[in-house]
Amino acid sequence: MKGRMKPKVSIVVPIYNVDQFLDRTMQSLLSQTLKNIEIIMVDDESPDNCPAICDRYAEQYPNVKVVHKKNAGLGMACNSGIEVASGEYIAFCDSDDYVDKDMYETMYNAALKYDADAVYTGIKTVNQHEKVHVMNEYPSCQIFQGKNKIHAFLMDMISSEPSDTIERRVPMSAKVVLYRKDLIDANKLRFVSERVIISEDLVWNMDVLNHSKCIVTLPQTFYYYYNNTASLSKKIRTDRFPFFKTMREALIKRSLEYHMPDEVLLRIDRMFIGYCRFFIGSILKSELKQKDKRKIVSDVCVDDIWKKIYESYPVKKMPKGHRLMAFLMKYNCYSLMSLVYCIKK
Fold first, then answer.
1. What does the domain layout of the chain look like in residue ranges?
2. 189 φ, ψ to 5°?
3. What burial letters (b/e) apply to 41-67, b meaning 16+ CB within 10 Å?
4. How far apart are the first and last CA of the chain?
5. Which H or E run includes 224?
């Protein structure tokens, strides 16, 4: 932004096929109480009217930049935004979500006050009927300094302890965080592609946190994650299991590179088990043919990866329902798993 003050915050908005929601997102960003910000709209070769909407905003508002790029997915779109961002801090906002007007001012002031490398806030969901639900919120303002405390925070983001009834204590979303741009640049941090490693936000946070000296959580929730509960367009993905294995390998590799405590391996395996359990449930509750369901579920349950997991993971410490599903998965009890998920034959 030649001839202007350096922006306090750069907000990257990856955009694909959301023309009916994009104005709502942009208006929430343009109405921020923090004035010296830049908004970077990254058009990921959107097939709808989004490219034209992006150009319209760039023409109308001097603090809006537009990047038009070949389609490569959400993570790569975020990277394109990072490349052109010039703010002291950087944030990300999905193009069908929206935020409260004081979000970035509150987070920026906290970042300055505590000299934080990252500021984490809660997250809400909102459906097509405008019904809002708090998904996660931190109980208070907390400061985490030093590797031990930051690693503990990160492990709660990966997953909870084996006996915990809550799957994870810290949300993995990168959309509710303010990040120091100098830290990202100095360590050449970038998102991985969700087409290779799902949960790209978690991998991103893992990289950021392992280079951070101080992070802060705030008790406020500013971010509205749009969840259209009436959508019929969400097709069942039957190919998820290999991606879960790739994700597990990537997290283990990073945990070793970053010299994290051995406990992180249990957290990673809990996450993997949880993803597989949810995946099996979604398959069993789907409209797929019974023979296809049985094959998909069986392919998961008999995979060689489970031998290593069952040898090291404390299954007996798992919550009762999780422990039951682990037993049924271990012995590939398709019919009983179907009953668990109330499948009507």
1. 9-226, 240-340
2. -80, 140
3. bbbbebeeebbebbeebbeeeebbbbb
4. 62
5. strand 214-226
Q: Which amino acid is at 147?
A: K
Within 10 angstroms of residue 206's Cβ, the number of other Cβ atoms is 22
Model confidence at 343, pLDDT cuts 50, 70, 90, reads: low
pLDDT tens digits, residue range 1-34? Answer: 445 689 999 999 999 999 999 999 999 999 999 9
Q: Whose CA is closest to 177, among 102, 117, 114?
A: 117
Instruction: Count other C-beta atoms under 10 Å from residue 292's C-beta.
Output: 12
Give percent helix, percent strand, percent coil of the chain, each to the nearest 5.
Answer: 45, 15, 40
Which run of H or of E encompasses 68? strand 64-68
What does the mean pLDDT of the chain come to? 95
Nearest to 187 by CA among 205, 207, 214: 207
Is it true that domain 9-226 has CATH number 3.40.710.10? no
Q: For 315, which DSSP code?
A: G
Contact 240, 297 (CB under 8 A): no
Longest dimension (CA), the chain: 68
Tens digit of each residue's pLDDT (9 = 90 or more) over 204-234: 999 999 999 999 999 999 999 998 765 444 5
Contact 265, 151 (CB under 8 A): no
Structure tokens at 206: 């893992």
Cα(251)–Cα(207) distance, integer angstroms: 10
- Report helix, strand or coil for 337: helix
Q: Are 157 and 267 in contact (CB under 8 A)?
A: no
- What's phi and psi for 203, nearest 5 deg? -60, -40
What is 110-170 written as a DSSP string? Answer: HHHHHT-SEEEEEEEEE-TT--EEEEE--SS-EEEESHHHHHHHHHHHH---TT-SSS-SS
Cα separation, 298 vs 250, whole angstroms: 24
